[in-house]
Amino acid sequence: MRHWNLFSLLLARKGLGSLNSLAARSSVQKRITDYAVETEPYPYFVADKVLPAPVLQAVHEHWPARDQFGLEIAHNYVCDLLHHRIDDDVQRKFWREFVESYGHEIAAAASIQFRPWVADRYGEEIEIRFAKISLMESDPEYAGHGCHTHHYHDPGWIGTLLLYLDHDATGYPGTTIQRFGDSDTRARARMAAATLQWYAAPGMTEVVTVPYAENRLFAFLDSPVSYHSVHAAKANAVGHRRVFRIHLTVPASAIKTLYGVSRRRYQSKRRLPTEDAEVIAWLTRDIEQLDQRSRQYRSGSKHRRS
């Protein structure tokens, strides 16, 4: 147990290295970075056939039993690969090696995809770390996950990566991207500050649902306006909607530099809906910076596979 915990701690702290040191070297990374990044309503991309077929088969063969998962929300379960020690020795070894190899490769490739925005916010030398690495699955009674962002509970998160795994997930949804329709930046900032009041909020609309498909990576840049949701499973749902999930972050010191407060203080100010002038100012600046970088990206982007 001590050895596993030490591994997990070192993995989380070591992360991927500095943003400017990352390069697409492996075939998996080159496949991912060949896909275009969409910028509306916020940066995201979808990449297919990410893992080699034998590796994907091994993922299914080494999937942990349900008793290795904890409840995240109703009928949705998570196995934390950074902090939970999987009981089965063979499965534990497999997932440790998977994280160290393919997990790192996928995370680095996604960081490269989002580098223009991350570098604009934190600089090219910012260190990219793992916030969470987990396995996720649902059961047929899954009722969905309402519209939310991740920024309100951790502004240091820079990316969410969802690798869909089930061969047949009939009846299970993908992830739905949402947008707040008001073009006024301060109105968008006030909506972003309305923590967890986003579901069915006036002006909030669904833009597109990225369908759940085996071996598909859906990744998005975490930001104040990265609204997303998941619909409920249908009555005929089969399989488990299995996902390999990574959340990427930057060091806590970067949050202090950017906002002038600690991560804990930021979280306390964003825990509930607020009209706090300081929060609105933070979010207005963040949204303006995001929009500007996206415009620059669109004007200078090269054609890639979409």
Overview of this protein structure:
α2 (27-33) packs across α4. The strands form two sheets. Strands 1, 2, 3, 4, 5, 7, 10 and 12 form an eight-stranded antiparallel sheet that branches. The protein has a four-stranded antiparallel sheet with strand order 6-11-8-9, with no helix packed on it. With 306 residues, it is of the alpha+beta class. The chain is globular. It contains nine helices and twelve strands. Helices cover 36% and strands 22% of the residues. It has a single domain (2-300), classed as Jelly Rolls, CATH 2.60.120.620.
- Alpha-beta content class: alpha+beta
Number of E strands: 12
**Tally of distinct domains:** 1
**CATH fourth-tier homologous superfamily:** q2cbj1_9rhob like domain
Main sheet specs: 8 strands, antiparallel
CATH level-1 class: Mainly Beta
CATH architecture: Sandwich
Short summary:
With 306 residues, the chain is of the alpha+beta class. The protein is built from nine helices and twelve strands. Helix 2 crosses helix 4, helix 5 (115-122) crosses helix 9 and helix 6 crosses helix 9.
Notable characteristics:
alpha+beta; single chain; Jelly Rolls; disordered N terminus; four-stranded antiparallel β-sheet; 36% helix; eight-stranded antiparallel β-sheet
How do the strands and helices of this protein lay out in sequence?
Layout: H1 2-14, E1 17-18, H2 27-33, E2 44-47, H3 53-61, E3 70-73, E4 76-80, H4 89-113, H5 115-122, E5 127-138, E6 145-148, E7 157-164, E8 175-180, H6 185-192, E9 204-210, E10 216-221, E11 228-230, E12 243-249, H7 252-259, H8 263-270, H9 277-300
Antiparallel strand pairs: 1-5, 2-10, 3-4, 4-5, 5-12, 6-11, 7-10, 7-12, 8-9, 8-11
Helix pairs in contact: 2-4, 5-9, 6-9
